[in-house]
Amino acid sequence: MTTAAAGRSAPAKHMWPLYAAGFTTAFGAHGIAANLGGHAQGAVTSLLVLGGLLALYDGAEVLLKPVFGTLADRIGARPVLLGGLVAFAAASALYVVADSPGWLWAARLGQGAAASAFSPSASALVARLNPAAKHGRAFGSYGFYKSIGYTLGPLLGGVLVWVGGLRLLFAVLAALGAAVAVWAALSVPVVPPLPKARQTVLDLARRLADPAFLAPTSALAAATAALSVGVGFLPVSGRAAGLGTVATGAAVSVLAACAAVVQPKAGRALDQGRLTTCTGITAGLVLTAAGMGCAMLPGLTGILVGAALIGAGTGLITPLGFAALAASTPTERLGQTMGAAELGRELGDAGGPLLVATVASLTTLTHGYAALAVILALGPMITLLRVHLKRG
Hints:
Layout: H1 3-39, H2 47-75, H3 77-97, H4 101-128, H5 135-187, H6 201-209, H7 211-240, H8 245-271, H9 277-295, H10 300-328, H11 334-362, H12 365-391
C-alpha cells in the first residue's frame, strides 16, 4: 500500500467506531421506545407510565448533553465517548439481571444519561478526526448510520422482543454498547484537549446567541421536529385513511430510508463545492415543509410522498448543519457546541410532536401538519427576504 493510499484509508478506520456509536444511540432510543407499550405490560400499567418511560431517555439527554459536551472539551472527547458506551452497556445489563418495573425505569434513565455522554463526544470526534474540507462527507456518513439505527430499531427490536422478551433486547443493547466501546478503544486515537482561554457565562451566552450557531442549530431542531412528527403521526393518518399496518409501516420506512440515502450525498456535495450550507439548508427546509403539506392530502400517495420529502429534507439539513457548526466553532470548544446543538435537536424532537398534537386536539391533524409546515417555511422565507433586500 502506498503512503497516499494509507493516508486515505486511515480516517476510515478511525471513523467506523464513531459511526457505530451513532447507530447505537439511535437503535437504543427507538428500539426500546417502539416496543415498550406492547411488550412490557408488567411495568407499563397506563399511558401515563408509558409516557414517563419514554420521556426518561430524552429528558436525560436534554439535561446532560451540554454538560458532557463541555466535559469532552476539558478532558478529551475519547474518554467521554468510551465512558458513555461502557455506562450504556452497564445500564442495559441492569434490566437483564434485575427484571422488574423499578429497574426498567433505572435502566432507561441510565441509557439516556450514557447516550448524553457518547453522542456529542462522537460528533466532536467526527469533526476533530477529519479536515474541514471533509466535514460534510464525514457528518453525512455519521448521519447515515444513525438513520439506519432509527430505521432498524423498531423493526429489529420488535423481532428480538417477540423472540425473547424485552430482556433480550436489553441484552443485545448491552452487548452492542460493550462491543462498540472495545472497538473505539482499539481504533479511535487519543485526541488531547486543546488549550483554551477562560470562558465566562457571558462569553458562552454570546457564542450561543451568534447567528453562526443559532441558524444551523435552529435548522437541525426544525428537521428533527419534522422527522419526529413524520414517524409518530404519519401512521395515525394512515389508519384514519383506512390503511393497514404494512402500508403505514412502509411510510415510516420510506422516510427513514430517504434521510439515510440523502445525508452522505449532501455531505459530499458540500465538500466538493457543488452545494453551499445556506442553499442546502434552505432547500432542505423547503422540502420538509412541502412534505408536511403532502401529508395533509388523503390516502396513501400523500402519506408516501410526504414521507419521502420529509426524509429528503432532513437528510439535507442534518450533515450541512453539523458541518456549519464545526466550521464556525473554535476546535477547543467543539464538544460544548455539539452538546448544545444536540440539545436543540432534542427540543425539536419533543416540540414538533407537541405542537402538532396540540393543534390537532383543538382542530384536526391536518391543521397540525399545516402549522408545522408554516414554521418550517419561515426560514426560507426570511432568507429570500434578506436576499431581496440586499439586492434592492
